[in-house]
Write a structure and sequence with these properties.
Length: 164
Amino acid sequence: MARASYAIAIGSNRPGRHGRPEREVAAALKALGGVVAVGPVVRSAPLGPSLRRYANTVALIESPLSPPEMLAHCKAIERRFGRRRGRRWGTRVIDLDLVLWSEGAWASPGLIVPHKEFRTRDFVLEPLARLVPDWRDPVSGSTIRQLACSLRRPRAVDRIASAP
């Protein structure tokens, strides 16, 4: 397979052998290899019951790996960093999500690209928009810039709730 680009979301909210979450993110970037660009680190509230804030970023990776091979690579890194399968939304030393692939969409058992939740996560879209604002979501056709702006735009429910 020719080299393709991947957008990989990286997050940590628990110290590990590399130190605090920001250091775990930096170590994961080194472990991934093929990194061509990295977005800013964004601190965010956890999803679900975890109480620890996350350090998040997105990296652009160039690789000859297919999407299933890239997923296996990411899962192997997570295991090396001490991530164990367990409670969903729990604290984690590292979380690597395959968000986008330059060749479009991919669907196979255990892997869907683009990541099904990335459109609703500002901690993914904000750093991603800094890197590749004109990339398009192969499902919606919207640019990353448009998706990021749609999260910042107040919705009718937000305006009603904040009305005097």
